[in-house]
């Protein structure tokens, strides 16, 4: 038996656990949406009496939140699971469990193919994750789910989805499954001025690797042996900065003696005592945090498998999103990164397709936040009101993450997408007209079935004229269950590799030139790290992890992580900027920065 105490002072609470605390390490792979899902799992596990640790070798259970996006990402996930399983021979680890997109997408097939993994859990298992892990540790064989098309779990009409029950939506919280007291607290409608008391309950293709931080362009994936080595480095917390950035994320909970487990959780201590709750536990201590707007996608891009395992599009209620934004700000976050599979669709199932324009303005007014950034915009669904909201709303950075995927009209139709080079250039011109220095990034696919040399020429011409700040270039690969998998006109690997190299080189040159054009420009930088006389952060046009960063020089001694400062760009290194400190725009305003030192 153990006494579980959360927080301290007036906002603290405790309950008695009848089980000995068990350690668990969470390893997160993939995108920012997966980061949110991992923090939901962390909240559930911590509330269920598990103790989060950073070192996988010191964990009784290692939970790997996998990515199932494309072939290279799947290989990374498998190799990370294999590397984690090695700890069962050399460390204290008793079980390795797969969750996330790869686990959901393949279920029992993955379990059969990877016996080194003790269990494969799907999204439907998240609500009872603590009980599932304890059962697995006790030796119970988990029966993995049979993969299914999750689009069929919700009504076809978007308006009917808001009242649908019984469908697991990772990152949306859960008011039906609540652990004892308020361990999963953190959100309530009354945390914000406009929140209500009750809450209703990109796709790219190809390599799947994130753009290189120096070039803004995706690198060609390494061989399988290389990904196995990287997986081991991720688990050990070693490797280069980029690997550590997407490596093991977790927080150690203090255990003063075997009979008492104290969770030092100032973020949970600030939680409300009643009302609907969202399960979330921050794992990354930086001043930026992803915030999920919605899940799923209703589009039918021929190359993309994501809708089949993430399901139909479902928006979170505005009160829920706003409440979580308040909670994040109260716990050291300065920039919220709004994520979903398709942010431009937000609100369509709630009766207002322009709801995002209103919501971003409300989030920007949350005390403590300095930035709101929107990601995953569908070009075909962009509208003048959204461009205006993103370009001119104070606190909302003019950042446009537009996945064009290609520029040849006929090839885009074959992809089941809309637009062409001229329409996309018109969209970019509309953005630049309202925000000349706006950041615009995109992903493109080369080597799609039926692509001709003329199509590639059209793409290269478009990129040369677009003035994009970051470009992710992916080589096409077949994905199980997609329409494009059945297409004729497949290109051989050598042709795809040659086109990938051509477009990647062009993209590197173009994004580097775009960065150089910012020399002399005054930018606002969110400070994310300070190491001696070196400070680093991101300007407004630089999205987290994928768009490069800005090195700050000549800054004052009292500069702190989370500060927003102005600086003049004085140099570049690829897409990365070097900028001389100007002045502080806004500091943390005295909010406890408990999570900034994690």
Structural class: alpha/beta
* Order of strands, widest sheet: 4-3-5-6-7
Strand content: 15-25%
Low-pLDDT ranges: 1-19, 175-276, 590-598
Mean pLDDT, to the nearest integer, reads: 80
| Total beta-strand segments | 22
Helicity, in percent? 25-40%
Number of helices: 17
Overall 3D shape? globular
Largest sheet: 5 strands, parallel
Spatial gap, N to C terminus:
29 Å
The whole-angstrom Rg is: 23 Å
Enzyme class: transferase
Protein name: Ribosomal protein uS12 methylthiotransferase RimO
Binding site for [4Fe-4S] cluster 2: 297, 301, 304
Region (Disordered): 166-224
Summarize the structure.
With 598 residues, the protein is an alpha/beta fold. The chain is built from 17 helices and 22 strands.
């Amino acid at each position: 038996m153990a006494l579980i105490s959360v927080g301290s002072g007036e906002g603290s609470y405790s309950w008695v656990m009848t089980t000995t605390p068990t350690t668990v390490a969470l390893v997160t792979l993939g995108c920012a949406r997966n980061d949110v899902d991992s923090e939901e799992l962390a909240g559930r596990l911590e509330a269920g009496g598990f103790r989060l640790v950073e070192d996988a070798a010191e964990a009784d259970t290692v939970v790997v939140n996998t990515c199932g996006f494309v072939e290279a990402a799947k290989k990374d996930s498998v190799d990370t699971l294999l590397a984690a399983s090695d700890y069962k021979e050399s460390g204290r680890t008793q079980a390795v469990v797969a969750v996330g997109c790869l686990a959901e997408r393949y279920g029992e097939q993955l379990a059969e193919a990877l016996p080194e993994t003790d269990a494969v859990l799907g999204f439907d298992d998240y609500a009872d994750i603590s009980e599932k892990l304890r059962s697995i540790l006790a030796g119970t064989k988990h029966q993995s789910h049979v993969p299914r098309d999750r689009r069929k779990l919700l009504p076809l009409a978007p308006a009917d989805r808001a009242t649908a029950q019984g469908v697991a939506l990772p990152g949306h919280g859960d008011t039906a499954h609540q652990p004892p007291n308020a361990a999963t607290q953190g959100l309530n409608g009354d945390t914000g001025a406009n929140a209500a008391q009750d809450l209703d309950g990109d796709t790219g293709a190809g390599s799947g690797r994130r753009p290189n931080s120096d070039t803004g362009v995706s690198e060609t994936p390494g061989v399988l042996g290389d990904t196995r080595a990287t997986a081991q480095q991720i688990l050990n917390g070693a490797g280069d900065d980029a690997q550590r950035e997407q490596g093991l994320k977790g927080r150690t909970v203090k255990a003063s003696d075997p009979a008492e487990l104290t969770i030092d959780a100032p973020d949970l201590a600030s939680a409300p005592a009643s009302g609907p709750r969202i399960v979330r536990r921050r794992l990354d201590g930086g001043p930026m945090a992803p915030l999920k707007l919605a899940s799923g996608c209703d589009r039918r891009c021929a190359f993309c498998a994501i809708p089949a395992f993430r399901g139909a599009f479902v928006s979170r209620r505005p009160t829920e999103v706003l409440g979580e934004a308040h909670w994040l700000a109260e716990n050291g976050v300065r920039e919220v990164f709004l994520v979903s599979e398709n942010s431009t669709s937000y609100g369509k199932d709630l009766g207002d397709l322009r709801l995002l324009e209103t919501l971003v303005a409300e989030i920007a007014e949350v005390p403590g936040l300095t930035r709101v950034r929107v990601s995953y915009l569908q070009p075909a669904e962009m509208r003048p009101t959204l461009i205006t909201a993103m370009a001119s709303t104070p606190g909302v950075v003019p950042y446009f993450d537009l996945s064009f995927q290609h520029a040849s009209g006929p090839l885009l139709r074959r992809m089941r997408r809309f637009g062409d080079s001229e329409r996309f250039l018109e969209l970019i011109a509309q953005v630049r007209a309202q925000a000349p220095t706006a950041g615009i990034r995109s992903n493109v696919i080369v080597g799609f079935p039926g692509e001709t040399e003329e199509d590639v020429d059209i793409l290269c011409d478009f990129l040369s004229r677009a003035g994009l700040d970051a470009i992710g270039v992916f080589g096409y690969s077949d994905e199980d269950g997609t329409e494009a998998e059945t297409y004729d006109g497949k290109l051989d690997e050598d042709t795809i590799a040659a086109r990938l190299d051509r477009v990647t080189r062009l993209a590197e040159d173009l994004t580097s030139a775009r960065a150089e054009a910012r020399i002399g420009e005054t930018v606002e930088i969110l400070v994310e790290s300070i190491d001696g006389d070196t400070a680093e952060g991101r300007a407004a046009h630089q999205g987290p992890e994928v768009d490069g960063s800005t090195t700050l020089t000549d800054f004052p001694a009292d500069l702190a992580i989370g500060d927003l400062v102005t600086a003049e760009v004085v140099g570049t290194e690829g897409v990365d900027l070097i900028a001389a400190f100007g002045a502080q725009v806004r500091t943390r305003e005295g909010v406890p920065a408990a999570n900034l030192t994690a």
